[in-house]
Amino acid sequence: MHPLSSVKSQSWLAWFLRGILILLFLILFAKLIEVQVIKGNYYKNLSKENRIRRVIIPAPRGKILARGGEVLAGNIEVKKSIEFTDNGGFVLSEDLTKSEDGQLVNDYKRYYPLEDKFSHALGYMAQVGEKEVGKINPDCPEKGPRRSDSLMGKTGLEESYECLLAGAPGEEIIEVDASGQEVRVLGRKDPSSGKDLQTTIDYGLQVEVASKMNGKKGAAIITDTNGQILAFYSYPGFDPNIFMNEGNSEKISSLLNNEDLPFFNRVIAGTFHPGSVFKPVVAIAALEESAIDENYVYNDQGVITVNDYSYTNWYFTEYGRTEGLTDLAKAIARSTDTFFYTIGQMVGPESIAKWATTFGLNALTGIDIPGEVEGLIPTPEWKKITKKESWYLGNTYHMSIGQGDVSVSPIEINTYISAISVGGSLCQPRFNMNKNPICRKVKVLQSNLDLVRKGMEEACTEGGTAYTFFDFADKHGGIKVACKTGTAEVSADGTPHAWFTFFAPNDKPQIVATILIEKGGQGSSVAGSIAREIADYYFASFVN
């Protein structure tokens, strides 16, 4: 028989356990109400999301074409399988072994047939950066936000015409089972292809220019007189295909660390001392400011001495000879430094800078790819502010022959020479074939331009500095070329930059070309020989 205290203890414990059990049932009941009643719709929708996947369907990017329809940047179609991930997403895989026909989509890989022969103008494709993910391009909001797995154009035409070239991706809504296999397609929105960009580039001429320039660090640009770019090349370059293929990180890193800067676009982003290709604008400044006229004659003695410092003419320095009586046309044809020292002093640095500015030699040309930089045309005021130094007569002399602090890009030189060739019409260079010319008229006397053109024509005939062109007319049916050589000193003991610029035919120009070989040597022989081969190709292919 149990004592009374034991019975009371057991009774209290039993009720305590019953209470705990009742409390647990109440909690469970409340949780069931929360799951089924309060949050029922939430879990129902979540369940649906777990079996319904939204798959982005890639859209083909528009092609970039040469003027004749040749492909400069195209697409390779790649079949990929849809693989669903545990987190409700998906990836596109090139491994098709585990895929069924219903789980395949078309993806596209960018392809550049010319490889490094046109890379600086084209640009390349790269993964969307972290800061760009989810953002909408304000120029084309209809394309939607950028996704982390998508590519976008970087530099060149790929970047400039991103909105035109980029397609709008499609979407497929797929129901999957518990194992992630497709059950059925619930809906589909087809992708919208990007539009093609037809450029002004002549495919054959581009290949020819790249062939002649290959291995020579520098730049080449060829346009018509309305600004259409026929060929555009910077060396060294890079193959944009390396960005589209996996496993090329070492190659890319090697290019980025290359001291020759293969990603550097020397046509538009490089500024160099122009040397004598700057002399035509100095001549125009002297004529327009009435410092000289068409009858002005200078007697070259080979050297000008100022305060015991001698400024010589190249003909005197190299051969110990003088030019004698020299008018403006002869001074341009023979690139007579002493003539330009003299007229530069007569007109003054401010007026030279004024006319260089008028012809766009210290401004962006407005070419339709990113990365262009402005040239530098110094003035006494600029030197005082920037260098905290005074301007001396020697600075004027150096400026008058395109030396000193004068620094311009190849595209600026080509654009200003083009304006001289057609009566002062300064046109914006462009790649887009469907873009109308944008030109402005430089207020300059035609008679002054004609006098400068005459000197440039004589430079490409016997007696001028461009001996590589002396027999051009004989071999091309009487077609004459107007040109200017340039040999720009980089430093006292360094190899000079070699320049050559020309337009042809001289009376009705079809093309304007500028060649720069960085630290290449003499402009007449180094850059001139390349220019001659390019001119031979053009007029043999398009005229004869």
- Integer average pLDDT: 88
Instruction: Spell out the CATH superfamily of the largest domain.
Output: DD-peptidase/beta-lactamase superfamily
The residue fraction in helices comes out at 25-40%
Structural class by SSE content? alpha+beta
The total of helices stands at 18
Q: What global shape is seen?
A: elongated
Strand content: 15-25%
Q: What about the largest sheet?
A: 5 strands, mixed
Domain unit count: 2
CATH class of the largest domain: Alpha Beta
- First-last Cα distance: 132 Å
CATH architecture of the largest domain: 3-Layer(aba) Sandwich
The Cα radius of gyration reads: 35 Å
CATH topology of the largest domain: Beta-lactamase
Strands, count? 21
Task: Please tell me about this protein's structure.
The chain has 544 residues and is of the alpha+beta class. The protein folds into two domains: 53-198, Alpha-Beta Complex (Penicillin-binding protein 2a (Domain 2)), CATH 3.90.1310; 203-542, DD-peptidase/beta-lactamase superfamily (Beta-lactamase). Helices cover 35% and strands 21% of the residues. The chain contains 18 helices and 21 strands. It has helices at residues 4-38, 40-51, 119-122, 156-160, 162-165, 203-213, 249-256, 279-288, 314-319, 328-334, 337-347, 349-358, 380-386, 393-400, 410-421, 446-459, 472-475, 523-542; strands at 52-57, 64-65, 71-84, 90-93, 104-111, 124-127, 151-154, 170-176, 182-189, 197-198, 218-223, 229-235, 297-300, 303-306, 309-312, 324-327, 425-427, 439-441, 482-488, 497-504, 511-517. Strands 2, 3, 4, 5 and 10 form a five-stranded mixed β-sheet that branches. Strand 20 and strand 21 form a beta hairpin. Helix 8 packs antiparallel against helix 16 and helix 11 packs across helix 14 (393-400). The longest helix is centred in the N-terminal third of the chain and has 35 residues, at 4-38. It is elongated, with a radius of gyration of 35 Å.
